[in-house]
Amino acid sequence: MSKFGVLVMGPAGAGKSTFCTALIQHLQNNKRPCYYVNLDPAAEEFAFEPDIDIKDLISLEDVMEEMSLGPNGGLIYCFEFLLENLDFLTDPLEEVTDEYLIIFDMPGQIELYTHVPILPNLVKHLMRGSLNINMCAAYLLESTFIIDRPKFFAGTLSAMSAMLMLEMPHVNILSKMDLVKGRVAKRDLKRFLNPDADLVDEDPSWRPGKDQEELEEGRTDGDPASTKNVMAGTSFYRLNKAVAQLIDDFSMVSFLKLDAQDEDSVGAVLSYIDDAIQYHEAQEPKEPRDDIDTNIIESAMGD
Ligand SMILES: Nc1nc2c(ncn2[C@@H]2O[C@H](COP(=O)(O)OP(=O)(O)OP(=O)(O)O)[C@@H](O)[C@H]2O)c(=O)[nH]1
Ligand SMILES: [Mg+2]
């Protein structure tokens, strides 16, 4: 028997926990069972109480205090500790059946998704070990990033890096769509869903050349440490063009749109996740149960 899960990832504040909440609400509205796993050792408040909470194993606050670590080092320590104590996850998850969608709410520290091999090891354990969970990664990026193209391509690069590192089915999501509605034309928005390198050239805010000249001549508005000119200069343009071209060449990253307040939008994203993990293929057609039908009929008749 397979199990089914989604790993909700992305940078800090991208809307991961809000998406998890919206997803749980949507599943409940559609009478689908779900199992909520919080893997953020710093998360305090939840709209739905997690079924498993990493804080019952280890909390970031304790680690930072006792090990004298900062928030990022502390988080890596928490995950290393989790990897040494995988029974904490395995034991309860073994009981979860194939009707459930297991939702893993991840922390936002970008270190986890880029260069340390912690997540690949965790994912391997969940997918290939005795748990045998069909997993999909959902990588969220805030849609407001599209207003600042260097930020958008940096975020897209981090999504691609997570895809390459995790080697699992993956959907990328532009979250908080309500914040860009009306600010970006629909046609322009479409370009960001399948980003190409030309978006860098078409950015109206670029002034390549001019500020670089000023920088080279030492004219930096009286502030020698100013980064303003660097960010608008030719070198920065070329860097962004190279990043965008790399993403374009791999042709791996496209985005789905998400407005967590809109149930249809949450349902649409869920249907992509279901497809990726082949959730519906595994569900047995349910026979109508005689006892339930009789009860419904009896209660409808006021018996
Ligand atoms: N307008 C709008 N705000 C949102 C949406 N989703 C999340 N937010 C807000 O964005 C902020 C961060 O949301 P979270 O869901 O906590 O983000 P997160 O990715 O879980 O954050 P970390 O766990 O701290 O990395 C909160 O203030 C949310 O209310 C959305 O769809 N629209
Ligand atoms: Mg969160």
Annotated CATH topology of the largest domain: Rossmann fold
Give the total of domains.
2
SSE succession: EHEEHHHEHHEHEHHHHHEHHH
Structural class: alpha/beta
**Under the CATH scheme, which class of the largest domain?**
Alpha Beta
Unreliable runs: none
End-to-end Cα distance, whole Å, is 40 Å
- Largest sheet geometry: 7 strands, parallel
Oligomerization category of the chains in this entry? single chain
What is the alpha-carbon Rg in Å?
A: 23 Å
Alpha plus pi helix count:
15
% residues in beta strands: 5-15%
Shape: globular
Strand order of the largest sheet: 3-2-4-1-5-6-7
Under the CATH scheme, which architecture of the largest domain would be assigned? 3-Layer(aba) Sandwich
Please characterize this protein's 3D structure.
One of its GO terms (molecular function) is GTP binding. Residues 204-222, 282-292 have a biased composition (Basic and acidic residues). With 303 residues, this protein is an alpha/beta fold. The chain folds into 2 domains: 3-195 and 253-300, P-loop containing nucleotide triphosphate hydrolases (Rossmann fold), CATH 3.40.50.300; 196-250, no CATH class. Helix content is 49%, strand content 13%. It is built from 15 helices and 7 strands. The chain has helices spanning 16-29, 60-67, 71-84, 87-94, 111-114, 118-128, 149-166, 186-193, 198-201, 210-216, 228-232, 234-250, 263-277, 279-282, 290-300, and strands at 3-9, 34-38, 52-53, 101-105, 133-142, 170-175, 255-257. Strands 3-2-4-1-5-6-7 form a 7-stranded parallel beta sheet, with helices on both faces. Helix 7 links the parallel strand 5 and strand 6 (170-175). Helix 1 (16-29) packs across helix 13 (263-277), helix 3 packs parallel to helix 6 (118-128) and helix 7 runs parallel beside helix 12 (234-250). It is globular. The model has no long low-confidence stretch (mean pLDDT 87). The chain binds guanosine-5'-triphosphate and magnesium ion (MG). The site of magnesium ion has 5 residues, from helix 1.
